[in-house]
TrEMBL record:
The lineage of its organism: Eukaryota, Metazoa, Chordata, Craniata, Vertebrata. The gene is MGAT5B. This is alpha-1,6-mannosyl-glycoprotein 6-beta-N-acetylglucosaminyltransferase. GO terms for biological process: protein N-linked glycosylation. Keywords: Glycoprotein, Glycosyltransferase, Golgi apparatus, Membrane, Signal-anchor, Transferase, Transmembrane, Transmembrane helix. It is an enzyme of class 2 (transferase). PANTHER family: ALPHA-1,6-MANNOSYLGLYCOPROTEIN 6-BETA-N-ACETYLGLUCOSAMINYLTRANSFERASE B, ALPHA-MANNOSIDE BETA-1,6-N-ACETYLGLUCOSAMINYLTRANSFERASE.
């Protein structure tokens, strides 16, 4: 009704001006003298026949329009009042104008317009009366005073002032009245209580779709169609999907046999690759053919393929338009929630996509964020993830601070147990290929890991040493007529397609890194093709405290080498990590490499089967949406042994506690049979403490730490929101308990504390899963 009111007023005012202008042009136009040569077509001469009378007419018309405009302005400010006398004043003002002679016709027009205004006012009065009747029937839509909805009054004030700031409010039926505000705030958002006069049964409660069984798929044709075209990055991903399709199909058959046709629920999954959207800048696509980073695209191609092969219902988005369509985002600027329930069980995205969803999903992101999985190469530690804590304690960065469960972040390598390990795959070799590689290796051939000429600068010293023993090859990108600035003794092949790079790796004995890029897929591919990977050791380790690359990333992790996973999980003889600044050590290492032979090696977790196994386990078992059941269960402590009663027992000859009862009686994942509890050394993180015992830190077990104190002699106990707790301070004999489970951190450490650490066992070659996790 407000829109109708304003439109009517605008039409009325414009009509006055138009009729007045037309009348002046037709009635007075003939009384002007002829134009002088050079006058503009729109210039009037000052000499008018009957000048005194005509000037009086113009003055009266001007006065009349001014009065009308003032009265119309007053009329436009009328709310739900019934001040119809103001319109009568407007009509009277017109009647009081008594023009003579030429203005009689103006009188008639003004009278007609006054009559029209009266009719418009009558229509508006009837409309406002209807509104008042409705509001009266509903208690005048007063703001409910309900302590369960404390934000309702402030939200009503906000809506009154700002409801026109986003078209999405009108999309949901908001029209500027208090009733429409309350309906919106109680039915679309959730800041006000349900209104008793609303027909609540009219709001449909959609049942979730029936569960379907997931069936392994070996044909990637439909996936390739979904990936789309138009970007070189998408073309790269599609080439990779096609090249590895047979390996994925074979891995799916093996995993299907391993699971023994176990029933798997098919999930509705959206994959939104935010960094490839035009809105995020998409800096990757233009660099695909120029030596730019490909690790992210390798991982995303493998994630898409794994989800497809596992048989899930997959949708792929690489633009905001596609994201809007899949999610049902209402038109506007993103202030309003989604139009219905979330149409997906899981959403895989990255930090760019997460930011885009925040801008366009409104409050729905907070409601549905438990369904989101963030592909995060370098990891996000809890201290950076917890928004309030990060802000207060100096951990706030441009990323982090989303208050997600730590395991909703999924990394490229298993370096941050607080997160989940997603990974990628490297190409596997059959037995014939493995034998051919071993026969055809060139003992004195080295391939450098560095596609950009800038990576070679400052490396002349150890390249000269390497050149004494080996023929050095490179794959440095360069444009025609501009060869790259690399030493003349280097045989540069330029940027190679993946299959040609594979052939080069199968011949080379050594694959050598210069220290950058960090933690890429190439070293694993080289090792899988029978190369020895030689990399520099960092002393001191690189981190956000001392290295520009890591500054601003939501992690305090200290990187000890170019590829810590290769150093820690693979190691010699496949991976050798040394100080490149020590010329004698470097020289001796090259001579050692030429004497030893290695076979192609690929960790199981980086095979297609390993990734399918891991992703399957996550999808079927990780649940961050259901409220956690209380622990210990009611009355279970009555049967616990010991004094005081405890569900744990010490492992023989150790200080590690394990679960004492049948773990299958508790529905936890990972199962409690995998649980091991121990105390770290002072200054040691739970990551290091668990690793030293051959275990993995497992934050899913943090709920157990809220009632367990091991055997610390605590003279005092404090409960605090602190990413270092639970912990024991030997100096003060105090035990610190964690108040917020979101802040428990495997990575946190301090010289002041011994950490209390939940660890677990793991499957050989698959650190992401415990022995009983499948």
């Amino acid at each position: 009704h407000i829109y109708t009111y304003k439109i009517a007023m605008v039409i009325f005012v414009v009509g006055i001006g138009f009729f007045s202008l037309c009348f002046l042009m037709t009635s007075l136009g003939g009384q002007f003298s002829a134009k002088r040569p050079g006058d503009s077509p729109f210039t009037m001469r000052a000499e008018v026949l009957g000048g005194q009378e005509s000037r009086g007419v113009l003055r009266k018309i001007s006065d009349m329009l001014e009065v009308i405009m003032k009265r119309m302005d007053a009329l436009s400010k009328l709310g739900n009042t019934s001040d119809t006398h103001r319109l009568d004043e407007l009509s009277s003002a017109l009647d009081r104008i008594q023009p003579i002679g030429l203005v009689e016709r103006i009188q008639a027009i003004a009278q007609n317009m006054s009559d029209m205004a009266v009719r418009v006012e009558q229509i508006l009065q009837r409309s406002m009366a209807g509104n008042k009747a409705r509001e009266g029937a509903f208690g005048q839509c007063e703001i409910p005073k309900d302590p369960r909805y404390p934000d309702c009054p402030s939200k009503m004030d906000w809506m009154r002032a700002r409801w026109t700031s986003d078209p999405c409010y009108a999309y949901y039926g908001v029209d500027g009245s208090d009733c429409s505000f309350l309906v919106y705030l109680s039915e679309v958002e959730w800041f006000c209580p349900p209104l008793p006069w609303r027909n609540q049964t009219a709001i449909p409660t959609l049942k979730p779709p029936p569960k379907k069984q997931a069936v392994f798929q070996s044909d990637v044709g439909t996936l390739l169609e979904q990936v789309g075209t138009g970007k070189e990055s998408l073309s790269f991903m599609k080439r990779r999907i096609r090249r590895l399709a047979a390996q994925w199909a074979s891995a799916a058959r093996r995993l299907d046999d391993k699971l023994r046709n176990h029933w798997r629920e098919q999930k509705r999954i959206l994959v939104h690759v935010g960094f490839l959207t035009e809105e995020s800048g998409d800096v990757f696509s233009p660099k695909v053919l120029k030596g730019g980073p490909l690790g992210e695209m390798v991982q995303w191609a493998d994630i898409l393929t794994a989800l497809h092969v596992l048989g899930h219902n997959l949708k792929i988005s690489v633009s905001l338009k596609e994201l809007h369509g899949f999610l049902g985002v209402p038109p506007g600027r993103g202030s309003c929630p989604l139009t219905g329930p979330l149409p997906f069980d899981l959403i895989y995205t990255d930090y760019h996509g997460l930011q885009q969803m925040k801008q366009h999903m409104g409050l729905s992101l907070r409601k549905h964020k438990c369904h989101i999985r963030v592909i995060d190469t370098f990891g996000t530690e809890p201290a950076y993830n917890h928004e309030e804590y990060a802000t207060l304690h100096g951990y706030r960065t441009n990323w982090g601070y989303w208050n997600l469960h730590g395991q909703q972040y999924m990394t490229m390598f298993p370096h941050t147990p607080d997160n989940s390990f997603m990974g990628f795959v490297a190409e596997e070799l059959n037995e014939t290929e493995r034998l051919n590689i071993q026969r055809n290796k060139v003992n004195n051939m080295a391939l450098v890991y560095g596609k950009e000429a800038s990576m070679w600068k400052g490396k002349e010293k150890f390249l000269a040493i390497l050149h004494r023993y080996m023929e050095i090859h490179g794959t440095v990108y360069y444009e025609t007529q501009r060869p790259p600035e690399v030493p003349t003794f280097v045989k540069n092949h330029g940027l190679l397609p993946q299959h040609e790079l594979q052939q080069l790796l199968r011949k080379a004995k050594l694959f050598i890194g210069f220290g950058f890029p960090y933690e890429g897929p190439a070293p694993l591919e080289a090792i899988a093709n029978g190369c020895i990977f030689l990399q520099p050791k960092f002393n001191p380790p690189h981190s956000s405290l001392n290295h520009e690359f890591f500054r601003g990333k939501p992690t305090s992790r200290k990187v000890s080498s170019q590829h810590p996973y290769a150093e820690q999980y693979i190691g010699r003889p496949h991976v050798i990590t040394i100080d490149f600044n020590n010329s004698e050590e470097f020289d001796a290492t090259i001579r050692e490499i030429m004497r030893i032979d290695v076979k192609p090696f690929l960790p199981y977790e980086y095979t297609c089967e390993g990734m399918l196994e891991r992703v399957h386990a996550y999808i079927q078992n990780q649940d961050f949406c259901s409220p956690e059941a209380p622990f210990p269960p009611v009355n279970s402590s009555r049967v616990w042994p010991g004094s005081p009663p405890s569900p744990f027992i010490l492992l023989p000859n150790s200080r590690i506690l394990t679960w004492a009862f049948n773990a299958s009686s508790f529905s936890f994942w990972p199962p409690l049979s995998a649980l091991r509890l121990l105390a770290s050394l002072e200054g040691q993180s739970c990551v290091k403490a668990c690793q030293s015992a051959g275990l993995i830190c497992e934050p899913s077990f943090v709920f157990i730490l809220f009632f367990l104190r091991l055997e610390f002699q605590c003279e005092g106990v404090e409960s605090e929101t602190n990413h270092l707790f639970p912990a024991f301070s030997a100096e003060h004999a105090e035990c610190g308990l964690q108040q917020d489970p979101l802040l428990f951190s495997c990575a946190g450490s301090s010289p002041r504390y011994q950490r209390l650490c939940p660890c677990r066992d793991y499957r050989k070659g698959q650190v992401a899963l415990c022995r009983d996790c499948l």
